[in-house]
User: Fold this.
Amino acid sequence: MKNIILTGDRPTGRLHLGHYVGSLKERVKMQNEDDYESLFVMIADTQALTDNYGNPQKVRDNVIEVMLDYLSVGLEPDKTTFFIQSAVNALPELTTYYMNLVTLPRVLRNPTVKSEIKARGFDEEKEGIPVGFATYPISQASDITAFKANLVPVGDDQLPMIEQAKEIVKSFNTTYQEVLVTPKAVIPEEKVCSRLPGIDGNAKMSKSLGNCIYLADDTETVKKKIKSMYTDPLHINITDPGHIEGNTVFTYLDVFCKDEHFAKYLPEYHNLEELKNHYQKGGLGDVKIKNFLFAIIEELLTPFREKRAFYEQHLDEVLEILKEGSAKANQVANQTLLEVKEAMGITYFDDKNFLIEQNNKYTKI
Assistant:
């Protein structure tokens, strides 16, 4: 059995390096492998509205931005089905049915939901938590199961969501029939890729914290951001011994640097281990290391910018890709919805047995 993959992003801003190493890179790899049947990539606008209900224009403005980022990193329309969440009508209906399989306390115990509630500053005593936001694990289970995805690339912060989706699948299949497929999370092999720190040294690169290097940033912007990156506050003079742990520049080098980069950009060293040893002994300045990192990131982002620039001039094609993908996604999700409703016994008009059952109730023997 070949794999079916479902993944996506909320259109609340452009995508950044954290998205790339955490998921986008793996998606590009997956689309080029032979062991998958379908790769569905969703722009989760419905989900984004649950905590941007006061600013729907923000979501609307970023649908195309996210799609441009997808195309720029190498996701291809002939290998990947791109779709907009709100354009697939089966998803909210599936969510409604799954709601009966989960209790409210269980949803609110979900670690991801709890952390997101705190991050977004919802005050339970005042305005409360939007119901749509609280039920976001159920909606995500709907997204996954609608396409019978068995693999879901996510960061480690999303693992509780996949666990809850598994619970819903098990509950449905036990209560009704074996219709839904149990998903498996796919996380980056290197833990740091799941939570790439921000340029300010914060625990995670985040659009809301403004500490990102975006995939669409131009050369000067990237250079400026890397120059401002958090390093070692105790490394004041070049001669001072430097610390690697918690040093954001070295964290990025761990993720993005390859041995061949040294021959091109820093030939006095053979590998990252040599560079680290010199920094820890003293005699190596932060500026030199940041310039090296800048060269590596530029090499990564340059082809992304070129592809993005092409599609920015062909937005009609971009919208058509989304339109065609959403139509295909509707077909697949509608088939799953039909199977779900048949398993639940609520396809009254198309179920020949329903009328027979009702006639038998009222037939006098």
